[in-house]
Amino acid sequence: MTSFVAQLDRLTNATTVEDVWSLHVAQMESFGFDRIMYGFTRYRSADSLGDPQDWMLLSTQTPEYMSVFFGEGLYRSAPMIKWAMANDGVCSWRIMSDPDWIASLSCEEKRVVDFNRSMQVTAGYTISFHSLSQRSKGAVSLVAAPDLTQDDIDSVWAEHGDTITVMNNVMHLKLMSLPHVNGRPLTRRQREVLQWVGDGKSVQDTAQLLGLTPATVEKHLRLARETLDVTTTAQGVLKAAFYNQMFLIDGSSVNAQPTQSKVRIS
After folding, report:
1. Residue 111's CATH number
2. How far apart are CA 143 and CA 125, in angstroms?
3. Which residues of 69-98 are buried (b: 16+ CB within 10 A; e: fewer)?
4. What are the pLDDT digits (tens) for 248-262?
5. Cβ-based neighbours of 20, under 8 Å, separated by 6 or more
6. Residue 161 structural domain
7. Which residues pair with 124 in a beta bridge?
8. pTM
9. Is 43 inside a domain boundary?
10. Tens digit of pLDDT for each residue in 192-207?
C-alpha cells in the first residue's frame, strides 16, 4: 500500500486522466475494492443526469456489467446513484441488508439490487462529492472484492475510512482539472479559434490574429461545434472550457477515449 502522502503527491502531479485513474485504482485495490466506478456530470436536472455523452465515466467494472447497468438504463433506478444525487459524503452499503429499506424499494430499484447481486456487487461504499453547482455532481462506487463481506469492508473502513475518503476527493478534484474528451478531441486550430472567440474577438479579429480568412475561421468554428455536439459557438466555448480543452499549456495532452476493458470515458 502506497503511503498516504506519497499517493497524494503522485495523484496531484499526474498529467493525464488515465494516469490519475490507474494510480487510484491500484490504491483502492489495496484496501479491498477491486471494482470502481466514477461518474461526473455538469448537466444534471431535477429528474435527469443529463445526456450520457456529456458524462465523464471511468470504470473497472466488466463490459458485461456496464452493458446492462448503463446500456439497458438500470442506472436510472439504482438506489445508490439516487442517494448520491441527493446527498454529499459517504454511505456504507450495509443499508442494502436492511429489510425495511428493501421493502421501500420500487420494482425497478429491486431489479437493480438483484442484478448487482448476480454480478457479485454486494458489499462496498459510495462517496458523493460536494458540488457548488446545482447542475454538476460527481460520485464514486467502491465495490468490495467478492470474497469480502460488508462486515469485512466496514472493518477496513473503520481503520482507513478517512484516508480512503480524502484520496477519493483528491482524485475527483484532480480529474476535474485535467483535459478530457468524450469521443475525438478538438484539433489545435479548433481550440485556437474557440479561445479567441472566448476572449471576445469577432470572426474577423480572429482571422486577422491567426492569419486566416474569415471563411476559414467559420469553418473551424463549425467543426468545433460538431466535435463538441453543440449548436452555437457560445455553447462550444462553455463546453470546451468545462472539458479543460482551452488555453492548454504547450505539451499538455487531451485524452482520447481509452480502451473500455480497462477504463471507460463516456
Report:
1. 3.30.450.80
2. 7
3. bbeeebbebbbbbeebeeeeebbebeebee
4. 765 455 554 433 333
5. 11, 14, 171, 174, 175, 178
6. 4-177
7. 143
8. 0.80
9. yes
10. 999 999 999 999 999 9
